[in-house]
């Protein structure tokens, strides 16, 4: 624990009332006290939770208690689309039992909202080595509809990101699956602001009112995974790379898929997530880890979208140039 004088110094530094010379003297002692505070606790937090009053383990210190968080193949990442390489093996996914309705429980776990799902829905193909069954889903978001996704595309951060976590079909728990370098497959979906509300999200959004406090949980009305994501025909364009969990322990056991087509939600719907509370009663906002270095990893893309979009534009340009497009 920090001594009384250390607390006073921290307060003074926060208030900017210490001279530069004093700071030089105090800083080493202060760093030592941060070290003690931040290594033992293991109470990780997001950058948005860190303040002078609450010096928790922000993302740059996650490695103190969880060494995998400084691994070479961490997530999330920024995807630079012109550097992705097209991979013909990245075929459309086969979704099984994604339409199946279930009565889930939604919980505020102090870092996010999470819904456990019965292990009935599975994904296969899509370049995956085997079939994977859904275990849980959760979300990452910003402040009142502001930037909040974990992955970014060409530097763009979307307002929210959905992670449907799957494990290889033969495992029975996530802990075991995480000891296999390809044990977990996460399907990631971005959100975009739309003018109208997405009624398929009513079960989730209505339930948030009841779980504002950390550890709050409530049962959901019957719903399916399919109703949360775009229609299957709009899920053929995606990015693929190998990475990690984006929260401690940051285990590098994840085959990542990020779908190009975002899910629409209205601004009002996005804002409801910011009404949730962290354990210290503060607004649960900015629940994303900053992007991590690629360290030489290749990001692949499925056959389609990026190339298709540019070839459509190219064809239109050629048609215009040749005077083929008729005004009407
Ligand atoms: Zn996640």
Automatic annotation (TrEMBL):
Localization terms from the record: Cell membrane
Matches recorded under CDD domains: alpha_CA_IV_XV_like
Keywords assigned: Cell membrane, Disulfide bond, Glycoprotein, GPI-anchor, Lipoprotein, Lyase, Membrane, Metal-binding, Signal, Transmembrane, Transmembrane helix, Zinc
GO cellular component, one term: side of membrane
Signal peptide: 1-20
Matches recorded under Gene3D superfamilies: Alpha carbonic anhydrase
Classification via Pfam families: Carb_anhydrase
Function (record text): Catalyzes the reversible hydration of carbon dioxide into bicarbonate and protons and thus is essential to maintaining intracellular and extracellular pH. May stimulate the sodium/bicarbonate transporter activity of SLC4A4 that acts in pH homeostasis. It is essential for acid overload removal from the retina and retina epithelium, and acid release in the choriocapillaris in the choroid. Reversible hydration of carbon dioxide.
Name of this chain's protein: Carbonic anhydrase
Native organism: Cottoperca gobio (Frogmouth)
Gene assigned in the entry: ca4a
């Amino acid at each position: 624990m920090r001594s009384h004088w250390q607390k006073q110094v921290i307060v003074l530094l926060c208030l900017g009332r210490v001279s530069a010379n004093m700071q030089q003297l105090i800083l080493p002692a202060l760093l030592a006290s941060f070290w003690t505070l931040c290594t033992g606790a293991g109470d990780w937090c997001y950058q948005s939770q860190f303040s002078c009053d609450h010096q928790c383990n922000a993302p740059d210190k996650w490695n103190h208690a969880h060494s995998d968080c400084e691994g070479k193949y961490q997530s999330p990442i920024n995807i630079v689309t012109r550097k992705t390489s097209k991979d013909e093996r990245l075929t459309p996914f086969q979704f099984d039992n994604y339409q199946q309705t279930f009565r889930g429980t939604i919980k505020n776990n102090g870092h996010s909202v999470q819904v456990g799902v019965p292990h009935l829905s599975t994904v296969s193909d899509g370049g995956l080595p085997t079939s994977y069954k859904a275990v849980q889903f959760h979300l990452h978001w910003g402040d009142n509809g502001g930037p909040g996704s974990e992955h970014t595309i060409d530097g763009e951060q979307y307002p929210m990101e959905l992670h449907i976590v799957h494990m290889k079909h033969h495992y029975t728990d996530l802990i075991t699956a995480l000891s296999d370098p390809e044990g977990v497959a996460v399907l990631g979906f971005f959100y975009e602001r739309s003018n109208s509300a997405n009624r398929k999200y009513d079960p989730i959004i209505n339930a948030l009112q009841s779980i504002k406090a950390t550890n709050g949980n409530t049962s959901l009305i019957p719903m399916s995974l399919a109703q949360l994501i775009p229609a299957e025909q709009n899920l053929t364009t995606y990015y693929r790379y190998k990475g990690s969990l984006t929260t401690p322990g940051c285990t590098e056991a994840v085959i990542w898929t990020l779908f190009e087509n975002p899910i629409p939600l209205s601004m009002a719907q996005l804002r409801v997530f910011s009404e949730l509370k962290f354990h210290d009663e503060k607004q649960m906002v900015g629940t994303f880890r900053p992007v991590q270095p690629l360290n030489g990893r290749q990001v692949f893309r499925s056959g389609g979208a990026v190339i298709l979009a540019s070839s459509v534009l190219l064809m239109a340009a050629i048609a215009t140039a040749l005077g083929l497009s008729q005004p009407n």
